[in-house]
Design a protein that fits this description.
Layout lengths: L2 E3 L2 H12 L4 E4 L4 E6 L3 H11 L8 E3 L3 H7 E2 L3 H10 L4 E7 L15 E5 L4 H10 L3 E2 L14 H8 L9 E4 L10 E4 L6 E4 L5 H4 L6 E2 L24 E6 L7 E4 L12 E3 L6 H17 L4 E5 L7 H12 L2
Parallel strand pairs: 1-9, 2-9, 4-7, 6-10, 11-12, 13-16, 14-15, 14-16
Antiparallel strand pairs: 2-3, 3-8, 4-8, 5-6, 6-7, 10-11
The structure holds threonylcarbamoyladenylate (TXA) and magnesium ion.
The site of magnesium ion (MG) has 3 residues, from loops.
């Protein structure tokens, strides 16, 4: 399997492969997705297989405009419209009522009456969606339960052997700018509920719509959403969270100024200036680099639980549960 630079020419080739039932990995602003036509049952079955993903975990449908959203969903609440107007394209996924007359494959939705939709904010993703001109499902392009990919090389490493040279393609659009998956908000229950904290900060959303936020969700063993299993986003190494300094045998993953006297440890830093956005962008790539060094245990500095730090902590808690 080869990686192709996301030029207009290669995006056009990728679109043709998708229309023939192939799988294309493409960058979004959050993480790399593993795309297939949302109406193509066989292609979607192969996406589940390539990732080793359980079939009861539904996929996000990606589109490029509101018209496409209206063709696959119904009864969009006014409150959801407020967020759509404000935040799309962007790192926000909405769970809406599925329109039965639409042709999104039921296996993509894990047979639910709802569907997850999002308009990604990335020129390559938007261009690809426009050329294909049909909705694409795109889970994160990693082996199920492992770290999401923020570079094309991560996709190649995780899934290269499971993809087909002739039918499939990996498009390289550089490192993703946000680095953490989209925020998922469910609008099909009694009140809008955040199912997954993510790249879009929840706090300002509350200005437009009051969302309830399942804070302790990462510790639940029974998932509220099929995809919210406890273990997820896990590196090979085990994680020790909220550490002050590394212990014998541990690598150090810092945030802000590093502790003194740790020169003998393998160490990386999510953001020396304690910038949460920078930390989110670096998180999965640094955990992958530490895995590459065959580190068995990583001590991670406390990350402030605000803004995108909430999503970082959610991923770290899930990543640390075995
Ligand atoms: O940023 C992202 O969202 C990336 C990029 C590629 O767009 N995609 C992504 O997809 O993270 P995935 O499949 O890794 O995560 C989708 C999440 C899962 O937690 C899944 O359970 C949830 O969305 N989901 C999908 N459909 C749902 C539904 N109908 N009801 C509840 N949760 C749903
Ligand atoms: Mg995922």
């Amino acid at each position: 399997m080869k990686i192709y630079k996301a030029t207009v020419k290669n995006i056009n080739i990728a679109a043709k492969l998708l229309l023939k039932g192939g799988i294309v990995s493409f960058p979004t602003e959050t993480v790399y997705g593993l795309g297939a036509l949302a109406c193509n049952k066989e292609a979607i079955e192969r996406v589940y297989k390539v990732k080793g993903r359980p079939k009861n975990n539904p996929l996000i449908v990606h589109v490029y405009n509101l018209e496409q959203i209206l063709s696959i969903t119904e009864n969009i609440p006014n409150e959801a419209y407020k967020l759509i107007r404000k935040y799309w394209p962007g790192p926000l996924t909405l769970i809406l009522k599925y329109k039965n007359s639409s042709n999104i494959s039921s296996i993509a939705r894990a047979n639910l009456k709802t569907v997850a939709v999002r308009i990604p904010n990335h020129p390559v993703a938007l261009k690809l969606l426009k050329v294909v001109n049909q909705p694409l499902i795109a889970p994160s392009a990693n082996i199920s339960e492992h770290l999401s990919p923020t570079k094309a090389s991560h996709v190649l490493k995780d899934l290269g052997n499971n993809l087909n040279d002739k039918k499939d393609m990996i498009l390289d659009g550089g490192s993703t700018s946000i680095g953490i998956e989209s925020t998922v908000i469910d609008f099909t229950g009694n009140k809008p509920t955040v199912l997954r904290p993510g790249g879009l900060n929840i706090t300002p959303i509350n200005k437009y719509v009051k969302v309830s936020y399942i804070e302790s969700n990462a510790n639940n063993t029974t998932p509220i959403s099929p995809g919210l299993f406890k273990k997820h986003y896990a590196p090979n190494a085990s994680l020790r969270l909220n550490a002050k300094f590394p212990l014998e045998g541990e690598a150090w993953l810092g945030f802000g100024k590093d502790p003194k006297n740790i020169d003998n440890f393998t160490k990386m830093n999510l953001s020396l200036t304690a910038d949460l956005d920078e930390a989110a962008m670096n998180l999965f790539a640094m955990l992958r680099l530490l895995d590459k060094k065959n580190i068995k245990k990583i001590a991670i500095k406390e990350i402030p639980n605000k803004k995108i730090g909430i999503a970082i902590n959610d991923r770290l808690i899930r990543g640390s549960s075995k």
